[in-house]
Amino acid sequence: MKLVKITGLFLLALCWISCNSGDKSEKILEDEQQMAKVSNLPKGKLFIIGGGKRPPELVQELIEVSNLKNDTYAVILPMASVEPDSAVFYASKQFTELGIESEKIKGFNFQKNRQNVEQLDSLANAGLIYISGGDQNRFMDIVLNSPISDAIKRAYQNGATIAGTSAGAAVMSKKMITGDEFKHPEYTGDFKTIEAENIELKEGLGLIDNAIIDQHFIQRMRMNRLISTAIENPDEICIGIDESTAILVQNDSAKVLGAAQVIVLKNINKSKISKDGLIGGRDLQLSVILPGEKFAL
């Protein structure tokens, strides 16, 4: 009888040790996964400008964020512009006027399927990469799935600040607003309707994979476009950045900088109702974020 009791107690103890060991193993695995996730986060920042004029105060913020006055340099990518030389000139000018030496600013007008290896290496090691305005489709036609894209992402991963204005803002998203409409192909700049399957999205750089960026937002009254995009892309946060305004993104947080507001639209209930080519949605979440305020991504 005593032997049976001892055996039973031994089995219970063994079971307790085994169960606790399993709990500890699961906890260690969870901790390791969390550490791996944190270690894979980019060390850099995104400075996303909604277009229009860039006040000196906004450019100064960019200089400080990217440590451009210290031992680093900037690379300007003008491929979105039809006048790349002018884009490089004016982008450089905004920095030199605030005391940055011209030697610290490079302009690389990469061509499709023809890139200079030394320039790619300089791009990957830059402290600031600045993408000009123009046409985001033109930029991505050159950059998508190319060594240029790899170099930008490597720089961002290693601590660089990636900045862009107007078209250079749009390309930051994984899903990029092209500016075109499927149902109204003649471009006017006005988005007068909220229709199903109308707003064209293409693949962007993917530096933000859970948000879609729109630019010139309040000035050009692009709310209809963002509403349409939010309803049809409920897994993404839709962000409208006004002119002379930027968001500074670091990991899962964004801060509004500059002159005006940023609109944040979320379809948190994944609501989508279609009827006769129109789309609707219930309980979309709208926030108007002021300069100096932060929001989560």
UniProtKB/TrEMBL annotation:
Gene3D superfamilies: 3.40.50.880. One of its GO terms (biological process) is proteolysis. Its EC number is 3.4.15.6. GO terms for molecular function: carboxypeptidase activity; peptidyl-dipeptidase activity; serine-type peptidase activity. Residues 1-21 form the signal peptide. It catalyses: [L-4-(L-arginin-2-N-yl)aspartate](n) + H2O = [L-4-(L-arginin-2-N-yl)aspartate](n-1) + L-4-(L-arginin-2-N-yl)aspartate. It is an enzyme of class 3 (hydrolase). Keywords: Carboxypeptidase, Hydrolase, Protease, Serine protease, Signal. The keyword GTP-binding does not apply. Exopeptidase that catalyzes the hydrolytic cleavage of multi-L-arginyl-poly-L-aspartic acid (cyanophycin; a water-insoluble reserve polymer) into aspartate-arginine dipeptides. Belongs to the peptidase S51 family. PANTHER family: CYANOPHYCINASE. NCBIfam families: cyanophycinase (TIGR02069). This is Cyanophycinase.
